[in-house]
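Reading a protein record of the kind used here takes only a little practice. Each token is a code from a learned vocabulary of local backbone shapes. With that in mind, consider the following protein and its fold in token form:
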Amino acid sequence: MRTIKMIMSVLIVIVIAVTIVLCGQYTLSEQRGGGTSPVCHISQEGRQFIIEEFGWCDDVPTLIDAIEKYEVENFSYDKSYAMPLIQDFDFDEFLEAKKGVCWELSAFAKCVIHEISLAKKWNVSNYIVDVRLNHEFDRTHSYNYVIDNGTIYSFDMTVAVDQHKSWIHSFQGNSLDDIYRYASKLKDDVYRVH
């Protein structure tokens, strides 16, 4: 009986720890245009870099193309390198490291789009979508969606950087529901939008 109580206590502690890690994995902050986002730590120099590198873009499709081109030319996909916690994205650290995994490539794009849309006063909603691959909890992937005036752009920087293939799609829509519908057509099991 005592052994069973001890095993149950250990299991409860493990469940609580896993729940804290999974549920507390993201620190959320409101972004302009709706939705939530991981905290993007970015210095004034990082903001200046974004304006200098991407400020010439006049619309969302051009900006997405420019980000994809920049990431392909300057970053590498590297599973062995990942920032220790996904909850905070350090833009400047990633820019210096020049390598990362899907989440970091997506977060970089999200930060750039956010900063440019603020500077240009664009009213866009900007999201990272996390999906389970083959409905397996331990196989996940992240990519981006941007909603801009009735058009939703879906793009995957990992495919661009790792496979040197462009994966940018657009479709009609104005809401997260439209994103979920599109993701389900792709057979993506969405478990988090931020």
Notes: The chain has one domain: 28-193. The radius of gyration is 18 Å.
